[in-house]
Amino acid sequence: MGADKTLGGLCVDTPRRKRVFILGGGFAGMYAALHLERQLGKRDDVEVTLVSRDNFFLFTPMLHEVAASDLNATAIVISLRKLLPRLTFVEGDVSGLDLESKRVTVAHGGLDGHSHTLEYDYVVLAMGSETNFFGKPGPRDYSLTMKTLGDAMLLRNCLIDRLEEADADCVTTGQRNAIVTFVVVGGGFGGVETAGAINDFIHGALPFYPNIQHANVRVMLVHGGQEVLPELGEDLGAYARQKLIEHGVEVRTGVHVKDVTEAGVELPDGTVVPTKTVVWTAGVTPPSLLSTLPCEKERGRLKVNERMEVPGFPGVWALGDCASVPDVTNGGKPCPPTAQHALRQGVAVARNVRAALNGRPGTPFRYKMLGQLATIGRRSGVARILGLKFSGTFAWVLWRTIYLFKLPKLETKVRVALGWTLDLFFHKDVVQVIGPRELDQLTLPALPLNSRQQVRQVQALQSRTQH
After folding, report:
1. Domain made up of 133-282+371-463: CATH architecture
2. Is 363:351 a contact under the CB 8 Å cutoff?
3. How far is C-alpha 451 from the chain's CA centre?
């Protein structure tokens, strides 16, 4: 029951506000929160709370542009508090979830880290995914990832650190070649775009590093499948591979990385590629917290019905990368974990939450993919839109145009447009924001767990470049 109110001298017991929790601030969670705010923001009987590890929404399709200095890091993020002024926001990591008692435990607080246990009536699970290292400690300890804003910023700083070291007069040719060898593992969208971005950035920065020649630089993309970008089909994948090769990227398909060690990347035939910089984009896995939930799962993801409801737990929905959502337009096969699906699932789940609050059944999620796009460097791209295939500069322009309009808020669109305009007229920015000294001075226990892992990864990578 809720708080007491006085009415005509009598004490009246008012109903408690219904509490709706959204766990996760990515595409799925943010758009669910955005549409719930529009639908329920003026209701006094409902309180919507968004719980997210970060206090900003990150536009992940543009992460590689931050790593390549095409965009400033702040251009592709926007405050969740600014986006959702009428919702309650809690910054923290979800460390526990009890679906039976309807309680969620949130950890936050930095140095004096502590937890809160919060009760809810309805919960939307949009907890995203984590990088999948397939149980191998080598890739986890000696690779960078490309999942977060911190990942992109650390990769950018790492690339500049490699250039600074390789340009030193005391470096031999063999050492220099290893220092400016960059290996990207995984040939999906993230891997292809990251490899293209690294290649563009390094070669664009070489005019400022006279001791490094273009012939010293080696950018390699290793992919276990038969063709890169398998989501776009074999023909566009082959085109993307050929263009990457023309741009100077060494592409190896049908090769599964055996291990990543201090010496470099070990391939199945025993060959070791000497490198000090490895970016791991070979796959994702659901958050480990999901394994503790008493729900049916499919490849680790929560299995839900066509309304994104978790069977056996009324008032619980799951969507995005952490859920296996049936695609009713494709025979019930699971929806692919893409941003365009997560965005629309967020909109649909908001409608279903509102229906549940009003005592009505929800509606099935229905969405037919419009297309997919990818950039491959040197102002080239590939795209498949409504069954039509595009490639080259036109596909690159199409990529930028579509994603510019998908950015939330006018101010974000303006920042990105200005960044792209400046990039057309000026050289790559080679300012190293985080140097080795700053990394060494960071107090790891004061950082969140995910940031601690990132710093350790970069420290390990930098320690391998010491003479």
Report:
1. 3-Layer(bba) Sandwich (3.50)
2. yes
3. 14
